[in-house]
Amino acid sequence: MTVRSINPRTGEVIKEFVASSPDEVRASVAKGRDAQRRWMTDWSKEERIEAVFELRAALQAMKDELMATEMLEGGFPQKDVVGTYNGVIKGFDHYAAEIRAVDDYDFPLDPAGWPETKATINLVPHGVVGHIGIWNYPFWQTMITMIPALMAGNAVVFKPSELTTMTGLRIKEAFANTSMPADLFQVLVGGPDVGKAMVTAPYDALVFTGGRGTGLDIMRNVGVKPLVLELSGNDPGIVCGDVDIVAAARGVASGAFSHGGQVCIRIKRLYVVRDVADRFISELLGIVSRIDVEQQLGPLIREEARARVHEKVRRAVHEGCELLMGGDKVPSKGYFFQPTVLKVTDDSLEIIKEETFGPVLPIRVVENEEEAVRLANDSDYGLGATIWTCDPVKGEALARRLEAGNVWINDHGRTINCGELFQGWKCSGIPSTNRRITLFMRKRTIIDHVSCRPRPHWYS
Ligand code: NAD
Known about the structure:
Blueprint: E1 2-7, E2 12-18, H1 22-41, H2 45-61, H3 63-74, H4 78-101, E3 105-107, E4 117-125, E5 128-132, H5 138-151, E6 155-159, H6 165-176, E7 185-187, H7 192-200, E8 205-209, H8 212-221, E9 227-230, E10 235-239, H9 245-257, E11 267-273, H10 274-289, H11 293-297, H12 303-318, E12 322-325, E13 340-344, H13 350-353, E14 360-366, H14 369-377, E15 381-382, E16 384-388, H15 392-399, E17 406-409, E18 425-426, E19 429-430, H16 436-439, E20 441-449
Parallel strand pairs: 5-6, 5-8, 6-7, 8-9, 10-11, 10-16, 11-14, 13-14, 16-17
Antiparallel strand pairs: 1-2, 3-4, 4-20, 9-19, 12-13, 15-18
The chain binds nicotinamide-adenine-dinucleotide.
């Protein structure tokens, strides 16, 4: 089996790769386990942190090649690549501080029920973490697992998406320039078949970022092990009646269309209160009409992805949505699609109910903010949501009623400290709690009867 990296701006094949074999997938577990044991026994915590910082230095040394690869293979505008690169570089400091703060702690026991006993909570790494990666921010999405997982003491076996293999291999190249054990970070190459083999391989924990359907398939096959799923979203945006129309229209346009709409947390359906709807929509259309598709949006990742988006828009129009702007491919060798705005009245349509991973924004005019919150929450997904208002009290009150793991008021899509606290509710992911470093650790509770005298409840 081979996989291909393609330049989505031109459709040209950049490189072909031979996929990893089932034997290589199996072997990665033992190799990772051996490296991880040495990582935990031969390095102190501070030495591990220092060694992970060597990775940061290696990534900085190859910044230009790394960003060029991501832009070439992922079709990104430069601004997106620079932003995520800078976020990752800062993330090393954050996760170093997080792991330094992790320590064993005593759990207080009531001496009446637990005489002469102490309980200690001990946090330890899982061991070997399998990571099945995604293509839409291939550097960022890899690093928000790789940095905390390594800092926490794990080995990582990573499979980049078959659409962005080259970026995955660049990260491996940077890793090779560090003093960490060679197999502490391994890269497997391939598509769904290699992903499936990883799901059933005996890694100690599995991380997956991608579509909800793939996530469900993984859940059916993974067996019993710690599982982190970061899945699809269908984020609502709410434009309130008191909004600053010009500012909010700019924010919504970037929240809906950046990176060609191929962002898990983007505004994928917009609820606009009737009082401001005409003025807001007209302002938004003006901004969207000025977007330079090739420079500011970029292409969709593949022709199949563009065809899917196109078909979905056509279906929505056929089902009665009003096409306000766009709706078609951009004539070009690359997989560009026009930024598309639709007006919707039927909440049961697929264009509202299911995520569109492309530059499409369905707008639904609502009577008031109550109706907006009700419709926003009427979804299987719960990844992100945005609220646009000039009233901070109202903004926060509405935010507290939204069923989503990440809510922005008067902004969109900026995550805290390299993926920290990022979480999906409902079918957008598991787990939905925890600091990120502790996702890569398990807890051992040690209950110690501090004396060796017999206990009253024992057999005599
Ligand atoms: P996908 O789910 O098809 O593929 C993702 C990865 O899974 C690839 O590496 C692929 O090779 C592998 N894979 C495919 N089928 C598999 C299987 N049956 N078993 C194991 N591995 C398998 O990717 P996609 O659907 O194109 O990704 C886009 C989706 O990802 C969107 O829905 C987006 O919202 C979501 N996403 C979510 C987040 C998040 O943090 N929640 C981040 C980025 C993207």
